[in-house]
Design brief:
Helix content is 30%, strand content 35%. The protein has 216 residues and is of the alpha/beta class. The protein has a single domain, classed as Rossmann fold, CATH 3.40.50.2020. The strands form 3 sheets. Strands 1, 4, 5, 6, 7, 8, 9 and 10 form an 8-stranded mixed beta sheet that branches. Strands 2-3 form a two-stranded antiparallel sheet. It has a two-stranded antiparallel sheet with strand order 11-12. Strand 4, helix 3 and strand 5 form a beta-alpha-beta unit. The chain is globular, with a radius of gyration of 18 Å. It binds uracil (URA).
């Protein structure tokens, strides 16, 4: 695993993550979604530096120019529902990407214990492609690992990038131990702990609820 934490330097991500965490700002649902989307855009830009590029000659109104274009389109694989805003941000920049969606939810046996259930997947072939897996809250890491195994039924990717907005240290360790292929983990923030409900502390709360409203 190669881990790139984008908040190691001073950059705009700090502003956006700070607003996402702030109880006085996060109630503005549109701003909350927009900030996640903007982080998705920044991450797309950073990941793009690690993709393959080809040179092509194009014609401008005034002449010829040797430009660069993405050699292949990535597959953006997003875990529902909290990942949707981040997905939109990535899709703004990787605007020709193919998309995959996976439902992964916590099936609770009691207040504190759960297993991850994957019940829905819509995914193209990922054989020899750049696979970008998107899950904003990397808490225990179990959702990412379950989603990854479900996606592998659609092929063996060439490169894997896992994007978490806020990750817990425990989640990062779990993902590292349970995904055997080589992959790059991208984070915008890292938090120390999980609480007894496996929520990231200090985190930001429930990202899905804050984007779309509380569920039953
Ligand atoms: N999902 C969230 O939305 N928040 C957490 O802290 C953990 C999982």
């Amino acid at each position: 695993m190669t881990w790139i934490n984008l908040s190691d330097s001073n950059n705009l991500l700090h502003q956006f993550v700070s607003e996402l965490r702030d109880v006085n700002i996060q109630t503005d649902r549109m701003r909350f979604r927009k900030n996640i989307e903007r982080i998705g855009q920044i991450m797309a830009y950073e990941v793009s530096k690690h993709l393959n590029w080809i040179e092509i000659e194009i014609t401008t109104p005034l002449g010829k120019h040797n430009s660069k274009r993405l050699a292949e389109q990535p597959v953006l694989a997003t875990i529902l529902r909290a990942g949707l805003s981040m997905h939109n941000g990535l899709l703004d920049f990787f605007d020709k990407a193919d998309c995959a969606f996976i439902s992964a939810y916590r099936n609770h046996t009691d207040n504190h214990n759960f297993e991850i259930k994957v019940e829905y997947k819509a995914c193209p072939s990922i054989e020899q492609r750049d696979l970008i897996i998107i899950d904003p809250m990397l808490a225990t890491g179990q959702s990412i690992v379950s989603a990854y195994h479900a996606l592998l039924k659609n092929g063996i990717p060439k490169n894997i990038h896992i994007l978490g907005l806020i990750a817990s240290k425990q989640g990062i360790k779990f993902v590292q131990e349970n995904i055997k292929s080589n992959f790059t983990l991208w984070t915008a923030a890292v938090d120390e702990a999980l609480n007894e409900y496996s929520y990231i502390v200090p985190g930001l709360g429930d990202a899905g609820d804050l984007c779309f409203g509380e569920k039953l």
